[in-house]
Amino acid sequence: MEENFNMVAKTLFGFEDLLAKELTQLGAQDVKTGVRSVSFSGDKGFMYKANLGLRTAIKILKPIHTFIVNNEHDLYNNIYKMPWEQYVKPTGTIAVDATIHSELFTNSLYIAQKTKDAVVDKFRDTTGERPNVDLKFPDVKINVHIDRHQCTISLDSSGDSLHKRGYKIATNIAPINEVLAAGLIMLSGWDGQTDFMDPMCGSGTMLIEAAMIACNIPPNLMRKEFAFERWNDWDVDLFEKIEESLLNKTRDFHYKIIGYDKAPSAVTKAIENVKNAQLDDFIAVKHEDFFKTQKGGDEKLHMVFNPPYGERLNIDMQEFYKNIGDTLKQSYPNTDAWFITSNLDALKHVGLRPSRKIQLFNAKLEARLVKYEMYAGSKKGKYMK
């Protein structure tokens, strides 16, 4: 039996509870939420499972040492003392990244450099050889986290951020992060039991994440590599077993996922990405201007989208957001429409009252995820039935 150990899953602000729920459903133990992170415990197989199966995680870290730091000498000495030979060969490669929440230290690059020096010096002093730095494909990626006086050294089991799923071969100017897209769909409560639409689909991220949620497909199956595949204890048989067990839990989906975009180039890219993700059986992408469309049929529709914020596109945002409200009101009855925006001023011009507002961040921008409920017939009529 593999032993359990502690791990930390990093996420975006506002997704901590979603990630904790995902971890619990996957079978994690000791699940505790933090800020932009959730700690949990599991064995090596579960670490593989978390990397493959979590939709709202950015990284899975494995803490290996914690100590108190009062100055850079404490940092260097504590890292120097660690048994690095357990994790990397003297001729191997390393990369270090650091995050800091401390008045003692202000420069994360300096902390990363100091950590690298301590590891390299230890090997040079004990073996006469030293690991090289490889920022792209290191054998071991070391994460340093300093919170006030507490320093935690972790191994990064993911490598590249887990939002890089591997299905995207074409992007437009402002593609939405895959983890953000998955989290928005999950926050909207979509369960795959209705049709789904993204009326401003760009390169198709929201559509693909929705299809993977509907069919319970593990989000990171198409990734080229995880960092743990270069570790000394890499177990390919165990990994394949975990992969197979996740694939056995996929399910059928009996509704439609529809994407519109008025830019022909975006439609081409979305179709390409959908095909690459092998989800073209479930997703239809059309060249349409949302403001000139109407909902087909009376069935319930679930809509999640990421309209322009005015950061990169030169358009009249007030008029644009007014058009969103008018189109929903006039052409999309029996629809739950959710969208995220950081243009809080333009949001006032939608002209509809949101039934939900959730504070989030899109990259560095403070944003709101808002919900508008479009009823079949009038709202008054709904309550008088």
Automatic annotation (TrEMBL):
What GO terms in the biological process aspect are recorded for it?
methylation
Q: Per UniProt, what is one GO molecular function of this protein?
A: methyltransferase activity
Top-level taxon of origin: Bacteria
Q: Which residues form a coiled coil?
A: none
Q: Which Gene3D superfamilies match?
A: 3.30.2130.30, Vaccinia Virus protein VP39 (3.40.50.150)
User: Mind listing the UniProt keywords for this protein, alphabetically?
Assistant: Methyltransferase, RNA-binding, Transferase
Q: Which residues form the THUMP domain?
A: 46-157
Checking PANTHER family in the record gives: RIBOSOMAL RNA LARGE SUBUNIT METHYLTRANSFERASE K/L (PTHR47313), RIBOSOMAL RNA LARGE SUBUNIT METHYLTRANSFERASE K_L (PTHR47313:SF1)
What protein does this entry describe?
Answer: Class I SAM-dependent RNA methyltransferase
